[in-house]
């Protein structure tokens, strides 16, 4: 994808200098271990991948903050400064020019001509009611570190079961609206370190559940919903508002 002139102008020499000094931040060792060019390329792809995750089908409907930004803006544009302020983005770079350059690599997102906003290329997805039947809640693992995002993602991926979305909840963390009704069924959610892991299918989630139970028989691992009750095809937050108006 060709970078528009307005965007190229944003990526000044300071941005390039910053990118070529990121070897240690990327965990790649010294410049002798990896060329500057490959270090820059890796950083750009990490930034693009992180931004794509924020706007992905799996995440966007569950991130009420970002979803509101998309829905209330003209044509779905979100100010890049909003995305650049997220913690994981801050760890990658604080340089706007680098973010713009990275997003030029994405086939899922596009940057506005002035280089100040970003949006999805595809329309927002519809709410998927099957998500509750292919999502697991995991708690009571031997170590808190075992339940952190990186550990679980790597574990499931090596098992050939890469998760679609993985969220970690420390005790006391605010529970998002899409999980509110799950708290009654799963009291560990919000009170003990827990992970909510979404898979692409019920079959994949079932296999993941079996793998965890085989590795740790004392772990708390269950489907968010066992399918005993019919799930509405409506976003639970919208349903809650309708009930209040009734």
Automatic annotation (TrEMBL):
User: Where are the annotated segments for Disordered?
Assistant: 227-246
Q: Which residues form the HTH La-type RNA-binding domain?
A: 37-128
A biological process (GO) annotation for this entry? RNA processing
Which region is the signal sequence? Answer: none
Query: What GO molecular functions are on record for this protein?
Result: mRNA binding
**Any idea where this protein resides?**
Nucleus
Q: Where is the composition biased (Basic and acidic residues)?
A: 227-237
Q: Which is one Pfam family of this protein? A: La
Q: Which UniProt keywords apply?
A: Nucleus, Ribonucleoprotein, RNA-binding
Q: What is its main location?
A: nucleus
Q: Which GO terms describe its cellular component?
A: nucleus; ribonucleoprotein complex
Q: Which SUPFAM superfamilies match?
A: Winged helix' DNA-binding domain
Q: Quote the protein name from its UniProt record.
A: Lupus la ribonucleoprotein
* Source organism per UniProt: Fasciola gigantica (Giant liver fluke)
